[in-house]
Amino acid sequence: MTKEIDGYVWDLPLGCVTETDIFTDKDVLLCPRMTIIDSAQMELLSHYKGKIHAVVSYTATEEETNQGDIEPDEDASIGFEDSFKHYAAETLEAIFTNISDVKSLTAGAREIGEQVYSVIDASKELFINLAKLKVSDEYTYKHSVDVGTMAAVLARKIGENSKFIHDITIAGLLHDVGKEKIPSAIINKPARLSPEEFEIIKTHPVHGYNILINSADVSEDMRQGILNHHENYDGTGYPRGLSADKIGKMGQILAIVDVYDALVTKRSYKTAKTPAQAIEIMFTMSNKFNLDYFKSFLSVINAYPNGSHVLLSDGEKAIVLRQNSAYPLRPIIKIESTGQVVNLASDAGYLSTVIVSSSE
Ligand SMILES: [Fe+2]
Fold first, then answer.
1. What is the chain's mean pLDDT, rounded?
2. How remote is the CA of residue 252 from the centroid of ligand 1, in Å?
3. Alpha carbon of 347 to those of 17, 121, 305, 351: distances in Å?
4. How far, in Å, is the centroid of ligand 1 from the Cα of 229?
5. Which one of 48, 57, 119, 130 is most buried, by most CB atoms within 10 A?
6. Contacts of 107 (CB under 8 A, 6+ apart)
């Protein structure tokens, strides 16, 4: 089925094929005919904010989705089978508790990293849904797999090659291995750390670097990434207070996903933030991140996964149907009371409406 669209780029349904060339209002070719509008293409096009005219063809599913019998798109987020989650958590726990055996440590991380990489490589969509990533309640191991996975997804989004993505997956899995050298009374303290305790915690990146220093399986770039995962772009991080390019690509990527995962994870002394809350907090500290990478990260975070129920600032309840990859906090939703489908990124009556809370 074909449909004529007079509107904006984000009115193009994801998955449609353009039947005509699409031009900007200055008659510059924006998108040739026969282009598949997937999320990557949508992101490219959505830099253009002006009006478009387009004719597109839909698949049957898109047609149904847009004609009233509306169900959320199947969630295309990165996820793992339960069996893999248990295996990953157990393997990490085993190798982390015997860090003197560096060969087993890096071999184990490489084995898990291969499987994480294969899931990411096989996934067409790049959204991250933390609920699907969780591997166990044990913080360090869950956090390590989350960080490795998100770092890989972000690296792919940025356009890094497969070797880099492999390496950062493993660096992400191992980034906190230095915590094994910190007394467990401090690591597991069910309260905020004292300044003295925090100084001790701040040594864990150096411990991690030193544990892996003689490993042939871990490159110096990977070690530097582990050493620099708490450095801030503005120079306010630790252990060395490095800034900007001195932190290196791997450290900059790990820093972003590490902060995000810490915010959305429940600890004994703090509640978990929702993905949307975490993103809002990260906006306020965005000078601490490489801004280009942070923007890429925002485009892959699934703040409101398809099918989640949300409350709007006008008091209406809605269900999330699809993502706007360029506007992660403004998905396409269906208002529950009226059945109206609204694109929060573009529908004129809703530009000042925001999502105030959500539940899956
Ligand atoms: Fe850390």
1. 82
2. 13
3. 22, 34, 20, 7
4. 6
5. 130
6. 217
Distance 335 CA to ligand 1 centre (A): 41
H or E segment at 88? helix 82-96
- 152/117 Cα distance (integer angstroms): 7
165-180 per-position pLDDT tens digit: 999 999 999 999 898 8
Distance 211 CA to ligand 1 centre (A): 14
Give every CB contact of residue 31 below 8 A, 6+ residues apart in sequence: 18, 21, 22, 37, 41, 45, 54
Domains of the chain: 2-58 (no CATH), 82-300 (1.10.3210.10), 309-359 (no CATH)
Place of tokens 């253009």: 48
pTM of the model: 0.70
- Pair of tokens at residue 160: 């890094």
Query: What pLDDT is attached to residue 345?
Result: 85
How much is the pLDDT for 250? 98
Q: CA-to-CA distance for 120 and 162, rounded, in angstroms? A: 11
